[in-house]
Specification:
The protein is built from eleven helices and 17 strands. By secondary structure, it is an alpha/beta fold.
């Protein structure tokens, strides 16, 4: 092999590595899978992931892509060692990513590669991903909506994301009406009320005397007085005081059963979208089963500032607005920070008559 062929091989392999990053960034999973030999392997022990063959690489990549809010990968050239029709090498990677469930971070990694010359040119025979540095601190930035498409090229530009400051502002009447209409189309009962006092009275109408009622850990309920009405008023069989009376060291199973399937759950949400979705976030997840369907009936009281255009914005609201405020509360009450360890998204209510959303025209809670 002459020097010219060696130079050409190196250029082609470097282009192959660049193509991998471009396909990942453009979310073009079929193109990314085609960069491997038919029996090529992509191994990521830290996840852990091991995909062998183009079909597995394609399917696995599509699963991963569906979890992203945004993903940015930069590849830096590394070594290439040629050996006839095979070669080995390393590429150095920097990545920024945030998943829809709130996981996020910055990492530096190495791809340990094996390459194979084929009739179609150089392909990956194997890529093994090794993380060298990982920082899971919350990322300060966000991706414009135009960067969040899932197609094979750049998504069409749309409106810029709402600034975090707007997450505290009450939504105008037309947005409340859109959200209510979308919720009703999804099987929720949705009512628009003037204020927290009206919601407090309406919750009293919806809960029959003597009902077994669980309240969520909600600032909306606390500030409106609904929490006190349920848990200290004596009108209901309140679950929360019973849970607090159980010895946490010996009664974990009893606590779990009490929280999972009450007759009624009354709570708020982190966001409601104009497309008809409710988003709840939790550190422990203990209150989510009842909201998801464990309770026979559910009532959510939602301040006007929680109405957002879509699910992308709802998830941003959780991270950028709700979590920092909940951190302050958790530090004061529990002596430790909060975290978004569990997310629940309710897109529809399949049980007729189970769920009621009370949308307020005023802001309350966070």
């Amino acid at each position: 092999m002459n020097d010219f062929q060696a130079i050409a091989d190196r250029v082609e392999i470097e282009a192959l590595r660049g193509e991998f990053t471009d396909a990942a960034m453009m979310r073009d999973r079929p193109r990314l899978a085609s960069l491997f030999t038919p029996d090529g392997a992509l191994r990521m022990p830290n996840i852990p992931v091991e995909q062998v063959g183009r079909e597995e690489i394609l399917a696995g990549g599509e699963r991963l892509q569906s979890q992203w809010d945004f993903f940015v990968q930069t590849t830096h050239p590394g070594t290439i060692v040629l050996d006839g029709d095979t070669a080995t090498g390393r590429a150095y990677i920097q990545e920024l990513a945030r998943a829809l469930d709130g996981r996020q971070g910055l990492n530096y990694a190495v791809y340990h590669d094996r390459y194979q010359r084929t009739a179609e040119g150089w392909k990956f025979a194997e890529r093994v991903y090794e993380v060298r540095y990982l920082d899971t601190s919350p990322l300060a930035g966000t991706a414009p909506r135009s960067a969040r498409g899932s197609g094979t090229g750049p998504a069409k530009a749309t409106a810029a994301p709402a600034p975090a400051a707007s997450f505290a502002d009450p939504a105008p009447a037309e947005r409340l009406e859109r959200a209510a209409a979308a919720l009703r189309a999804g099987g929720f009962a949705a009512e628009i009320l003037d204020d927290a006092a009206a919601a407090r009275a309406r919750v009293g109408d919806l809960l029959p005397e003597g009902a077994v009622v669980l309240t969520g850990a909600s600032e909306t309920l606390r500030l409106s007085g609904i929490d006190d009405d349920v848990n200290t008023g004596g009108r209901y069989d309140a679950v929360r005081p019973r849970v607090l009376a159980v010895d946490r060291a010996t009664g974990a199973d009893e606590i779990r059963r009490l929280l999972a399937a009450p007759e009624y759950v009354v709570n708020s949400v982190a966001a409601v979208t104009e497309t008809g979705s409710l988003v709840l976030a939790s550190g422990s997840g203990s209150q989510l089963p009842a909201n998801a369907g464990g309770a026979a009936h559910a009532v959510w009281v939602v301040g006007a500032q929680k109405v957002v255009p879509d699910l992308d914005t709802a998830l941003r609201r959780v991270q950028e607005h709700v979590l920092p405020l909940e951190n302050v509360r958790a530090q004061a009450v529990y002596g430790r920070p909060s975290a978004v360890n569990r997310l629940l998204v309710l897109n529809a209510e399949p049980q007729p008559g189970r769920a009621t959303v009370l949308l307020l025209r005023e802001a309350i809670g966070y």
